[in-house]
Every structure is written in C-alpha cells, then in structure tokens.
Amino acid sequence: MESACSTDSQACQYKCDASKGYEYKVVGGKGVCVVNGQCGSAATANVDGKPTATNLCAKGDPSPTTLTQTANGWSRVCKGVNGGNDSPTCNATCRAGYIPSGTTCFQNEKPATCTGLPANAVRSSTNSNAPKSITQTLNGGVRTPSEVGTPNTATTANACYYKCNAGYTPSGTPLGSSCIQSCDASFTLTSCPAGANCSSCGGKHKIDSCKTGRERPSDGNCYYIAKCGSANSKTLPKSTYGIDGV
After folding, report:
1. pLDDT tens column, 67-98
2. What pLDDT digit, counting tens, does each position of 195-224 carry?
3. Distance of alpha carbon 230 from alpha carbon 228, whole angstroms
4. In Å, how far from its chain's centre is CA 49?
5. Residues 129 and 172 in one domain
6. Is 33 contained in some domain?
7. Beta-carbon contacts of residue 238 (< 8 Å; ≥ 6 apart)
8. Single residue among 147, 181, 215 that ends a domain in this structure
9. Cα angle for residues 77, 82, 86 (degrees, 5° grid)
C-alpha cells in the first residue's frame, strides 16, 4: 500500500498499489488490499508447447509452478492473494489436431509409410494385408500402430502387415521375418553333384539329369561310364558304371 500521510497530521490514509495488481476489498469487516487471480498471455489456444506457470498467470499467486496436463494442453488456477478471488481455470491449448506430450505439442494423427517388407512378400490394399501407408496416433509418447512390418495375413485396415508371395513360406526368426521358396520333398541335396544337372529350391537341390559322359542307374546318382572290372563297378543289364566321380 502507498502512504498518503501529511507532515502535519497524525492521520494517515493508504491506497492499494494498483501497479502491482492490488485492489481494495473488505474482508472480514476490514478493508485490505488484495490481488485477484488473473490468467496470463499464455492462456490461449494454438500453443506449441508447455508454458511457464508465471506466463499462465498474469496476477495472483504463481505457486505451485507445476501445471496440470490436460487432454489438449496444460492448465492451472491462479490463486488470489490476501483473500482475493481465484481465477477461473487458465488453459493453454495445443493447435487443432495436436496433443500435449511432455513439454511439446505433437501432431495427434500422422501418416506413416510401412517399412521392413522382406523380399518375396506383398503388402497392399488389394489383398488381405494392410496398405503401404498407415495413420499413427500418439499414445503415451509412442506412436501406434508401428510402421515396422509384421508377418500377419489378417485383414486389418490400419496396420503394417504382410504375407509371403504365392510359392513362398514364412521363415526366419521371428517366424515370418523372411520368405523362402516353397519346395517339395524331392529337394533333399545340400549341393548339386559335379556330374549332374540340378534344379534348386530354397537352398536345396535335386538331380534332373546327368551331364554328358555320365549315366544314372537306379540309385539316382550320376556315374562316369567306365570300362573296369566288376570289382570296381556297379553293373546293370548291358551297362557298367564306374563308381569314381559320383
């Protein structure tokens, strides 16, 4: 309060210092100078991040300095001083489509492109897999669903699912992290013999025919045609095959 005393009088008058936000009010039958709580300049929409407690209050007690995070921003009540009135709730609101997370306003829904599609797999909106782009929602500081591809044949409108192409089967760890060619039981060899012509599937091989100069008896291998004694040969009707060079 400011004094209005004269030098020749014992009676003094005081007035409330309006420059500091004080105003006169009768509290409990006595006149006092009070400060009514008032929201500050940060109490507005379209903020980009968390304001300070003092920016959210123009007048009143700035404590506590902890702001309350709401669904779309931050808020607090500015307390009155010396019996002054509290302010209404002061809100700092993120822009439309944005929500608070920590000290920043983030876009709530955001498009994302699916990643991690392995070779020989498909993901598109024309089959039972999700489209190549999804819409993510911010939830607890984490965007969901994930943009990383997941093996799954389920029909889901907004997820990065993929499946192996026709003729390929899920493989890898975790299962489905890669797609390998589907092979029948005839592909059993880990390598193609030197004297054979082979077809391959999924890293396995099978003999299709023997190379020139070799023949294939009933045991399925390709042998050199040899003129040797019976002790070192496999004999079939009208043919003798050398065992060297299988």
Report:
1. 999 999 999 999 999 889 999 999 999 999 99
2. 899 998 878 899 999 998 888 887 788 888
3. 7
4. 22
5. yes
6. no
7. none
8. 181
9. 20
Name the pairing type of β-strands 168-171 and 239-242. Answer: unpaired
Please measure the distance between the N-terminal and C-terminal CA atoms of the chain and give it in whole angstroms: 111
Residue 227 forms part of a structural domain = yes
The yes-or-no verdict on residue 238 having pLDDT over 60 is: no
Domain boundary among the residues 58, 77, 107 is at 107
Rounded to two decimals, what is the model's pTM? 0.54
DSSP H or E run through 56: helix 53-56
pLDDT, residue 129, reads 52
Mean of the per-residue pLDDT values for the chain? 81
User: Same domain for 103 and 115?
Assistant: no
The span from the CA of 83 to the CA of 61, in Å, is 11
User: Structural domain of residue 140, as residue ranges?
Assistant: 109-181
